[in-house]
Every structure is written in C-alpha cells, then in structure tokens.
Amino acid sequence: MGECVEQYAKAAERHLRDAEFLLKNQRNANADQLYGLAAECMIKALWIAHDPRDEQDLKNNKKFRSHMDQGRLLANFQASLEEIRKGNLLSTLPDDCPYDDWSIHQRYCSDDDLKIDNFRKRRRWTIRLCKILRLHKPEKPLE
Question: Does 8-136 carry CATH code 2.60.40?
Fold first, then answer.
C-alpha cells in the first residue's frame, strides 16, 4: 500500500458508510466501533482546517493523536479552537459528546457489552458531526 497520507475527511466518510452498512446488517458492535473512528477522523479534519499552526506540527501534537476515548479528543479540539478564537465553529458542534463510554479497545469486547441506547446516541451525534464537516469542507469530499 505504501506510505499513507492522512485524509481525515475521506476516512471519516468511509468509516461512516461502513458503519451504516454494518448497522443495516445488524452488526451493531462493529458499527459502533466505526462510528467512533468516523467521529475521530471528522474532528481531526475540522481541527486541521481551523487551526493556523503548521499541519505537521499539529499532527505531532499528543493531544491531536488521541482517540475519542472518554471524549478527550473532542475536548482537546474545543480547547484548541477556544485558544485560537474560532468560537463560531464551536457553536455548531453537537453538544453532549456521547463517547464517554466508547473506547478504541472495545474491538476486543463481545456483542453483549454494547449498550444500545449509547450506541444510538453516538450514531446520531456522529451523523450530525458529519453534516458540520461537509459544511466546512476541510478536504474535498468523496465522489
């Protein structure tokens, strides 16, 4: 495959499409994992698009490299936006990040460990976040 160039918006769209496919096929636990990865990629795409720092410096930042676990990535992104005074985007982000109990490590769990109400909230939140991402067009969307 060669060297990977991160294209977070495109990766987010791919993860979201695959999550929706898995949901339609009643593979909720794997769909939930991909919704989290999609949200993570969306936040990173928005962060790169709205942070004036050099993209490579930002990607090397430990806070940027975190996962959605316990909503830390979103909190780091919001703090960064506040720091660079991009409050207009902050006001459009969905409230109440539902990723408090999501973990990148849930890929090791059984299907029975998934809390369906939280899963549904994460799906709705991620779809709303995707709409925001498309409005801000940080990268050319998938055709």
Answer: no
> What does 50-103 look like in DSSP terms, one character per residue?
H--S-HHHHHHSTTTT--SGGGHHHHHHHHHHHHTT-HHHHTTSPSS-S-TT--
What Å distances lie between residue 56 and 36, 48, 70, 92, CA to CA?
23, 9, 25, 26
Domain positions in the chain: 8-136
pLDDT tens digit string along 62-113? 777 778 776 678 888 888 777 766 767 767 777 778 888 888 888 898 888 8
